[in-house]
Amino acid sequence: MRNEPLKITLIIISTTILFYHTFHLFYLWSEIPNSIAIHFSKGEPDHWGSKYILFIMPIVSILTWFLIGLLVKKPEKLNYVHLTEENKEIQYVKAEKVMLVIQYLGSLSFVFTNEAALRNAVGMESGLPFSIAIVLLCICFVAPIYQLFWAATLKD
């Protein structure tokens, strides 16, 4: 694979964070009330749900990671701007890199959001994990836009 160092780094970071969150979830399980806030309006909870909902986000994270991973395997199936025979290889490599970033950071945003919900449920500070999730999602939106502008500047 052309982006092997990036992929290995993202695998190590993502796996470590997912394992930490899973451990933290089971460690705090007995302290989590049976009903937790699942939606907030103006900083106050306005919808409540079962504590078992905390298992949904990690599952969604893994499912998202898997589905986007299918796209990463075939970068030639994506749409490109100014794709020519001369630049197609570099465009494929860059597209694969962007898709790897979206794959791993997108799934990590679910984990960090769930960590924030977990911390909120047990009365711990939840601002940092939620802020990290927002930053990761922003990176996931900016990366393809950057890729688009980069490709638009390629010479024909």
How would you sum up this structure, described in words?
- The protein is 65% helix and 9% strand.
- The chain has 156 residues and is mainly alpha-helical.
- It has one domain.
- Strands 1-2 form a two-stranded antiparallel ribbon.
- The longest helix is centred in the last third of the chain and has 34 residues, at 88-121.
- The radius of gyration is 19 Å and the shape is elongated.
- The two termini are 27 Å apart.
- The model has no long low-confidence stretch (mean pLDDT 89).
List keywords for this structure.
156 residues; mainly alpha; two-stranded antiparallel sheet; 65% helix
Helix count from the secondary structure assignment: 4
Mean pLDDT: 89
Supply the helix-strand structural class: mainly alpha
- Biggest sheet, in brief? 2 strands, antiparallel
CA-based gyration radius: 19 Å
Calculate the terminal CA-CA distance, rounded to whole Å: 27 Å
Q: H/E element string?
A: HEEHHH
Oligomer: single chain
What is the percentage of strand-forming residues?
A: 5-15%
Low-confidence stretches: none
